[in-house]
């Protein structure tokens, strides 16, 4: 019936997502550990060239956060009239 169809679809989509997104998930899980390990190594050995990955990832993260905030502010400003009608 409908419940079985929903569960079958859900399980199928979960398996497909898990299969094809696994490489991306592993990559994004490994990056913080590598950056943190290199940063600890750089601080312990005083080899500052190993801090560059940390600085690059931090800079990209800050830029992306600023972009997301700007997108949210723009969307909020654009739909303010609709929001006022709802509230």
Total beta strand runs: 0
Helix and strand sequence: HHH
Query: Which residues form runs of ≥5 with pLDDT under 50?
Result: none
Q: What is the helix content?
A: over 70%
Oligomeric description of these chains = single chain
Tags for this model:
single chain; 87 residues; transmembrane helix; transmembrane; membrane
What this model shows, in words?
It is flat and about 60 Å long. The mean pLDDT is 78. The chain has one domain. It has helices at 2-45, 52-78, 80-86. By secondary structure, it is mostly helical. Keywords: Membrane, Transmembrane, Transmembrane helix. The chain crosses the membrane at residues 5-21, 27-44, 51-78.
